[in-house]
Design goal:
There is one protein chain. The chain has 333 residues and is α/β, with parallel strands linked by helices. The chain has two domains: 285 residues, CofD-like domains (Rossmann fold); 41 residues, no CATH class. The protein has twelve helices and 14 strands. The strands form four sheets. Strands 5-2-1-9-10-13-14 form a seven-stranded parallel β-sheet, with helices on both faces. Helix 1 runs parallel beside helix 2 and helix 10 runs parallel beside helix 11. The longest helix is centred in the first third of the chain and has 20 residues. 45% of the residues are buried.
Amino acid sequence: MRITVLAGGVGGSRFVLGLREELRRREASGALAPGEAEVTVVVNTGDDLWLAGVRLMPDFDTLLYALAGVNDTERGWGRAGDSERVAEELREWGVGWPWFTLGDLDLGTHLARTAWLREGLTPSQVAARLQHRWELGVRLIPATDAEVDLHVEVADPDELDGTRTMHFQEWWTRYRASLPAVAFRQQGLDGAAPAPGVVEAILGADAVLLAPSNPVVSIGTILAIPGIREALDETHAPVVGVSPIIGGAVVRGMADACLPVIGVETDAAAVARHYGRRAGGGLLDGWLVDETDAPAAAALRADGFRAEAVPLWMRDPDTSAALAAAALALTTP
């Protein structure tokens, strides 16, 4: 069984952890032979940026740390038990963003990545090298080796055209998405292509899963990479997504500040319709919503979607594994 997941950071990492747990349980029960399941995660790169002279890949590192069991579960990002002495020193020198903290252990990852990039390795080659440190049980691939950093155009009456543009991380972390967004723009798309292994993972999959990540800035950025959407159209694998919206509210993050910008309601069914039915030229074969959104699942089924209502809250290994099992079940008609 070959499974490919498209994922962002925190929500994506929790879902992939649940998927790994479900597959391990199937192996333990004899339902799967050891090593029969192969999981590849295509990771959003829109959050990536250069800061203080080092290359950051926040979503990739969130997945890496979570799968390695060294992540900070309280904050949802960074390394557990990290210190911030270097960040404090950088602030004294006026280097970087004082509101964007890098932990010391986390900074070690960024320095290693940057050193390898300076030596001529590509981001996907660096990603493979970083994964050698821990036994993750899955393979992580950045969506692209190109620098496709996401920028946000926000309303600003002090500017001549009424707008200004900033990196997504500034809008997200510094301003907590409080500045009204006008548009999201992925820089560098013209020269971008899927990283080696991405298209192959999609075309060769038995199932493709969309993690409950931000549809605009995470999944949306992955889909914007030329060649990825085409691979999803071509693959014979069913494509099943998990709603990042429960009861009209975001599970985590600020997707509710992003969806209206592209004309989509903060609603589980609206996100499914945004992705579209594969039979009608869209993306999805199946869609999972939470039990509280059962009427939305019924409405989607009436529109021709394969949709089910199941518990979506990933509170622990059991609930996360159960959600992954439900997603896999929906890949089978």
